[in-house]
Structures are given as structure tokens and as C-alpha cells.
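Why do we bother with holo predictions? Because pocket geometry can differ from the apo form. Keep that in mind while you read this record for protoporphyrin IX containing FE.
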Amino acid sequence: MSDGQIAHPLETDRPTPFDPPLELRRRPPLSRLAYPDGHLGWVATGYSVTRAILADPRFSTRRELLHQPVGRDRAIEEPTPAEPGIFPHMDPPEHTRFRRLLSHHFGPRRVAELMPAIRRYTAEALDGMAGADSPIDLVASFAMPIPALVICELLGVRAEDRQRIQAATSVMNDLDSRPDQVFEAVMSITGTVRGALAGPSGDGLLAHAAATGELDEEELTNLGMVLLATGHLPTSSMLALGAFVLLTDPGQRARLAADPEPAVEELLRYLSILQFDVRRTALVDVEIDGHVIAAGETVVLALPVANRDPARFPDPDTLDVTRSATGHLAFGHGVHQCLGQHLARAELRVALTALFERFPDLRLAVPAAEVPTRDRMAVYGVDRLPVALPERGA
Ligand code: HEM
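The structure, written out:
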């Protein structure tokens, strides 16, 4: 954590880079948590209580009601209602209107259509790695570009803009970013989306959404921003962290190759990268698990801990890619459950299997403890992942 900041329970030590903060593991399923702005809120760490809160319409995601559990200048958290189009911060029925409009763009059929693009971008990334000298940063060469290119393709945004988008979403995800930096990042993405809407964006999602006539320009622009931001960083983080854990565990790697579908589910459960930012505020007093969450109190849903609940997943700290991890909460649950989950699963399956098929001898280029982790990011992951390929011609 950065200098001068007070250690927060959400940011204490992890036994390994793949484990959630220890302090949270020791807590009961639902407990009090002091937020940096002075709010005395809650944190849910048990599987059943977390799932129940996510499914409960008495809890809201409205931004003006949410307290921030960790980091970030309070100025960013000004209590303003969601901007038009920023549907993750809306409750039904406003939220439902957007989900209805978007669901078929992220359904299994659309994902099947995108498979050739996912394979092509993966092959290009791997070709780039094959030609590079070791050590290679797997984040920059593999984990970042594939999801960024795929979401650009889906939305109809020019692929040339992807680097700008990557940089901007990293700033938005960093809890230590200053308000002016976040503003600049938002402006940068908004500019890209406006470009896509103004230009001949072809048959991407944004052009289709515009053609329905159901959204005004501001809604469309903000919608594009949300989808660009949510559509690539979590998948990039999962690709990098997934590759990292598999590099440390050759046995699990071999099993992934044999049966990728359950393996990806287990990686999602085990790594659960959305760590601090899944939050809800009670709209009325809610009695749950022997406690009363009072109206106005915010709960952090600690998905990484809920997914390690031994009452739901036996031997939860063991990565076992052959287990059935279905029912995990890595994509959330309820009406806000991840819109892009089919797409994310497809990207993880294709890219992780192709990586180890193409480079069976890939190895970490530094000791695992030296890989820099992103402890203070809403989306957990690694900043860099130095890997080495066997010497060419060796
Ligand atoms: C929501 C995780 C990839 C778009 C969520 C939520 C989680 C999540 C936990 C629920 C947040 C909440 O309840 O407050 C992940 C993970 C991913 C991933 C782990 C990758 C492995 C994607 C992709 C997209 C996407 C590829 C594509 C655009 C969204 C959107 C929401 C969302 C738009 C908000 C949904 C709503 O509020 O209705 N994601 N996500 N995600 N995700 Fe993902």
C-alpha cells in the first residue's frame, strides 16, 4: 500500500498472491466494517449471506447511496445519481431497460459468432510472443490485448484505440487515482466512443443500439464507456492471474488442457478478482443472518472470500480444476450478475488453453513472490508477469 495510508482490514496480508486478505477470512459471515469516510458499514464474507444480499431487491447499487470501503479520495465519491446510461449504478426498473437492450449482444449466440475473432487475436498475441526475447511480460503481450481487441470488435470501436482504452481503464480501476486523473481517463474513453458513434462504426453493438432509437446520445456514449471499461480489465486480470497460478502448478495446467470448461469455472472461483467494489446499500432495514442492516448502510460483498467458504466449497483453498465450481459468485448474482460472463468464459477458455498448447515449456522468469500484485485495485491482478520461453534453437 502507498505511504501515509492507514492499513485497512481489506488490505491485510495474503498467504499467497492467489488468496484473499487474511483478516477477512477470519471474520464471521457478516460483520461490521469501518469505512475510511467514517461510515460504519458491513462486510459479507459467507457464501449464503453474500448470495442472499445480491439477490435481494431491498439492496441498491445506486452510486449516491454507496460508501467506498477502501482508498480513493472522497471527492470522487460525491453523492451524485448515476449519469444517463451508467446502468450498473441503477436499480430496476431503470436498470432493466438497459439489460433488455443489451442481453442478446452478450448471449451465447453472439459469443459463438465472436469465436473466430477471439482465436485470431489469441494467435496474433502468441505469434508476437514467439518472436520476442525473454523475459516477456505476459500482461502486456497477452492478457491485455486479447480482451481489449475483442470488446472493441463487439462494440464497433476502432482497434487502434485500444491502447488508450487500456491506459484509461487502469486509471479508473486504481483506488489511488486522483479525481483529475479519473476525469481525464473518463474523457479519453468518452472521446473514443463518440468517435465510434460518429464514424462508420458498421455493425458493432453501439451502432445497433443507436439504430434502435431508444437511447439518446449521452446514454449511448456513457453506455459505450461502461462496456469498454467493464469489458476488458476483469478479463485481462483473470487471464494474467490464471496464467500465473497455472505456471506455478503444472499438474493443474495439464488438467486444464484435458477439460477446459470446468477448469475455467474453478479458476474464476479460486481467483475471484472483483475484490472491493461489489457493494450494496440497504434501502430499508433488512434482517439477515441474525443482524439488522439499517437503511442507508453499505455492505461490501467480499466475493473472493465467499467463494472460499468451506460450507459451500469443500477444501476451498485448494485449486482443483476438476471440481465442479458452478454456483460460484465470481460473476456476482442477481439482477446485476455480469453481463459479459459468456464472453469472458470463452476468452479464458480459448486464450489459456492456446497459451500452454503453444508454449508447453513456458515458465516464470522471476520467483513467484516477486510478481507485483495490484492489492489496491478494485479488480485484483498483477501489474506485470515476466515469463520466459526456452532458448530458441535449444
Ligand atoms: C458486472 C465480474 C468480464 C461486463 C459484473 C459483476 C461481477 C463481474 C462480479 C457484478 C458486480 C455487482 O454485482 O455489483 C466479471 C469478471 C469478468 C468479467 C470476473 C472476467 C473474468 C466482463 C466482460 C464484460 C463485463 C467481458 C463485457 C462487457 C459487465 C457489466 C456489468 C458486470 C456491464 C454490470 C452489470 C449490471 O450492473 O447489470 N462483472 N466480469 N464483464 N460485468 Fe463483468
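The beta strands are 30-34, 40-44, 59-60, 136-137, 279-282, 286-288, 291-293, 298-301, 363-364, 386-388.
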